[in-house]
């Protein structure tokens, strides 16, 4: 019943190795299962050696005590990897780590994948044109219905924030065209299924944001809500009477109750079990404001668990020993929690 996690190193020019070494130094983290780092052992050792020379950094796990699935890299690629400088070499390496982890997980070797951050620009420089790791995971898994769910547990109240994005890495100008009743139904299906299967929440309360300021204000500030969004939501309420569906909530007020639930400013706050934001910044600005150092990116709809820390490669601080591993720890803990729940439910 002990889950087995594949932990990818991410872009080797970024902070991935550092946050992995810091996270795995916590002796409690590996009590719930086995963790195998998927990457380059020599680069992990090199990071460990260099970071040990930095003053006043957090404890690091010794690579000798870490299980590593060593991914072969061409020597010319390794030679071109420089800490703090994402390029085609670091992109090729991080892509190889991901491909290996996905392939091994699909064969049943691992129960979940935890991914350290990659640089999309480095992937493009290496010739891989994916919007992000999420889309690669979905393609390799053979699915087209998936979503980016951000999960964070408040250190103040222990309340859990769950925010799903209806659209992800697209220009803001494309959002109104991409949003359709069909897409919204698909995303709502994913959120409901995730709440029920992964978190054991039946008859959940879900808050759904509007698209325009004041949710369009009866057509004065945009027509999408009147034209199709409100009729779609009313139809969903009729088809899902067991759920509490609230919306379209004006985007500027939807996050008031979650903020109270997160910081403990109000007792028995009517915060929802899940929040459905319509585009990237509508969901991630409040999530990162409340939980920047502990939010976890979870890909739902995959045939396995995937989590990731909610931060980037941070090339500007890579190798300096100052990267915060809190979100990586949270990603590992959530992956164990969800994987164990899935094993128990089988």
Question: How is this structure best described in words?
Answer:
- The structure is a single chain.
- The chain is an alpha/beta fold.
- It has two domains: 1-143 and 302-346, Isopropylmalate Dehydrogenase, CATH 3.40.718.10; 145-298, Isopropylmalate Dehydrogenase (3-Layer(aba) Sandwich), CATH 3.40.718.
- Helices cover 40% and strands 16% of the residues.
- An eleven-stranded mixed sheet has the order 3-2-1-4-11-10-5-6-9-7-8, with helices on both faces.
- Strand 10 (296-300) and strand 11 (305-309) form a beta hairpin.
- Helix 4 runs parallel beside helix 6.
- It is globular and about 60 Å long.
- The mean pLDDT is 92.
Please identify the top-level CATH class of the largest domain: Alpha Beta
Tally the helices: what do you get? Answer: 12
Question: The CATH topology of the largest domain, please?
Answer: Isopropylmalate Dehydrogenase
What is the count of β-strands?
11
The CATH homologous superfamily of the largest domain is called Isopropylmalate Dehydrogenase
Gross morphology? globular
In percent terms, what proportion of residues is strand?
Answer: 15-25%
- Oligomer kind: single chain
| Spans where pLDDT lies below 50 across 5 or more residues | none
Looking at the overall shape, the CATH architecture of the largest domain is 3-Layer(aba) Sandwich
- N to C succession of SSEs: EHEHEHHEHHEEHHEHEHEHEEH
What class would the helix/strand composition place it in?
Answer: alpha/beta
- From the alpha-carbon coordinates, what is the Rg to the nearest angstrom? 21 Å
| Mean pLDDT figure | 92
Q: Work out the count of structural domains.
A: 2
Main sheet: strands, sense, barrel: 11 strands, mixed
Report, as a whole number of angstroms, the end-to-end distance. 11 Å
The side-by-side strand order for the widest beta sheet comes to 3-2-1-4-11-10-5-6-9-7-8
Q: Which bin fits the share of residues in helices?
A: 25-40%
């Amino acid at each position: 019943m002990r889950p087995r996690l594949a932990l990818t190193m991410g872009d080797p020019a970024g902070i991935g190795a550092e946050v992995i070494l810091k996270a795995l130094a916590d002796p409690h983290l590996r009590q719930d299962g086995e963790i195998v780092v998927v990457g380059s052992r020599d680069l992990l050792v090199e990071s460990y050696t260099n970071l040990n020379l930095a003053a006043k950094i957090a404890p690091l796990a010794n690579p000798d005590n870490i299980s590593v699935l060593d991914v072969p890299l061409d020597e010319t690629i390794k030679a071109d990897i420089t800490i703090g400088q994402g390029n085609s070499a670091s992109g090729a390496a991080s892509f190889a780590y991901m491909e290996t982890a996905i392939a091994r997980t699909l064969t049943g070797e691992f129960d979940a994948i935890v991914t350290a951050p990659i640089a999309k620009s480095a992937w493009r420089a290496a010739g891989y044109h994916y919007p992000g790791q999420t889309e690669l995971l979905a393609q390799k898994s053979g699915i087209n219905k998936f979503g980016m769910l951000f999960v964070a547990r408040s250190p103040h109240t222990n309340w859990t924030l769950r925010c799903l994005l209806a659209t992800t890495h697209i220009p803001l100008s494309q959002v109104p065209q991409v949003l359709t009743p069909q897409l919204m139904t698909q995303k709502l299906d994913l959120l409901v299924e995730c709440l029920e299967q992964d978190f054991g929440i039946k008859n959940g309360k879900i808050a759904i944001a509007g698209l325009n300021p004041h949710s369009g204000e009866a057509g004065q500030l945009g027509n999408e809500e009147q034209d199709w969004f409100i009729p779609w939501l009313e139809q969903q309420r009729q088809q899902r009477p067991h759920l509490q569906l609230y919306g379209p909530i004006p985007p500027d007020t939807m996050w008031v109750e979650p903020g109270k639930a997160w910081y403990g400013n109000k007792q028995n706050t009517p915060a929802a079990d899940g929040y459905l934001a319509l585009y990237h910044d509508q969901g991630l600005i409040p999530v990162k404001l409340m939980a920047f150092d502990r939010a976890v990116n979870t890909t739902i709809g995959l045939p396995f668990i995937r989590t990731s820390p909610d931060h980037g490669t941070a090339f500007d601080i890579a190798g300096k020993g100052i990267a915060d591993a809190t979100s990586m720890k949270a990603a590992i803990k959530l992956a164990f929690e969800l994987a164990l729940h899935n094993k128990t439910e089988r």
